[in-house]
Amino acid sequence: MARMNGVPEDRADLVSRLFFRAVRKRTGKVAESWKIASHAPGILRGWAAMEWFLDRANRVEAKLKRLAQLKVALMVGCPT
After folding, report:
1. Domain hosting residue 34, numbered range
2. Does residue 66 belong to any structural domain of this protein?
3. What's the pLDDT score for residue 27?
4. pLDDT in tens for each of the 80 residues of the chain?
5. DSSP-assigned states of every residue in 2-68
6. What 3-state class would DSSP assign to 72?
7. Is residue 1 situated within a structural domain?
8. Would you state the pLDDT for residue 42?
9. Is 29 inside a domain boundary?
10. Which residues does 6 contact at the CB level (< 8 Å), separation at least 6?
11. What's the total number of domains in the chain?
12. Residue 72: inside a domain, yes or no?
């Protein structure tokens, strides 16, 4: 459980709502971490840029990238 609450979608600014829409389209839901990051729009934009570039990185097969993401999530205790 997060130590702070994320910004509710109905109270988020326009940029945050656009990011939420893109995340929901891609993953099916908006994780609380995105809502928390929206408290600081600069961090939200930076994080979104990092995700965008990681998705487009092509030196490693997509299947291997997903496997690495799953392994890291399990190591840090993310719920699946």
Report:
1. 9-76
2. yes
3. 87
4. 668 889 998 899 998 999 899 989 988 999 898 999 999 989 999 999 998 898 888 888 889 988 998 999 999 988 75
5. -SSPPPPGGGS-HHHHHHHHHHHHHHSS--HHHHHHTTSHHHHHHHHHHHHHHHH--SS-HHHHHHH
6. helix
7. no
8. 92
9. yes
10. 32, 33, 34, 35, 36, 38, 39
11. 1
12. yes
